[in-house]
Every structure is written in structure tokens, then in C-alpha cells.
């Protein structure tokens, strides 16, 4: 699967893991002990998020690319 959504990746000291958030998909996030593991896990979670949204008849956001934050 080709990820086109922006990913925010950071180290969580309290979780002792890398956290990956997908801002365009509400509630979509994953973690991993390594950077690569976290990104691999979020690929699975994104696919599951999309499949669940489709099953529920919800709109799937079109990836916007890089998001800007103030």
C-alpha cells in the first residue's frame, strides 16, 4: 500500500516507543519500538481505518499532502 497521508512521527519517552499519528484520519495512530516498526504498523492501521470507514459508509478523506501548522 502506498501511503499518501502525512505522518507525524515522534519519540514518546513515557511510552518508550515511536508514535505515528495520521492527522487526516481521526484517531489513526500506531507505535513501535523502532522508527521502521512504527511506520510499518501505521501502514496496517491506515488500511484498517479505511476498510472500517468503507464498511460504515463514511467518507474517506483525500490525502492533502503536507499539512501546515502554525
UniProtKB/TrEMBL annotation:
<dbReference type="InterPro" id="IPR031807">
    <property type="entry name" value="HicB-like"/>
</dbReference>
<dbReference type="InterPro" id="IPR035069">
    <property type="entry name" value="TTHA1013/TTHA0281-like"/>
</dbReference>
<dbReference type="InterPro" id="IPR051404">
    <property type="entry name" value="TA_system_antitoxin"/>
</dbReference>
<dbReference type="Pfam" id="PF15919">
    <property type="entry name" value="HicB_lk_antitox"/>
</dbReference>
<feature type="domain" description="HicB-like antitoxin of toxin-antitoxin system">
    <location>
        <begin position="8"/>
        <end position="64"/>
    </location>
</feature>
<protein>
    <submittedName>
        <fullName>Uncharacterized protein family UPF0150</fullName>
    </submittedName>
</protein>
Amino acid at each position: 500500500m502506498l501511503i499518501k497521508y502525512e505522518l507525524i512521527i515522534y519519540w514518546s519517552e513515557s511510552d518508550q516507543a515511536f508514535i505515528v499519528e495520521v492527522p487526516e484520519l481521526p484517531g489513526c495512530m500506531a507505535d513501535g519500538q523502532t522508527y521502521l516498526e512504527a511506520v510499518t504498523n501505521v501502514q496496517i492501521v491506515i488500511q484498517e481505518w479505511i476498510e472500517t470507514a468503507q464498511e460504515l459508509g463514511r467518507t474517506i478523506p483525500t490525502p492533502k499532502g503536507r499539512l501546515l501548522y502554525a
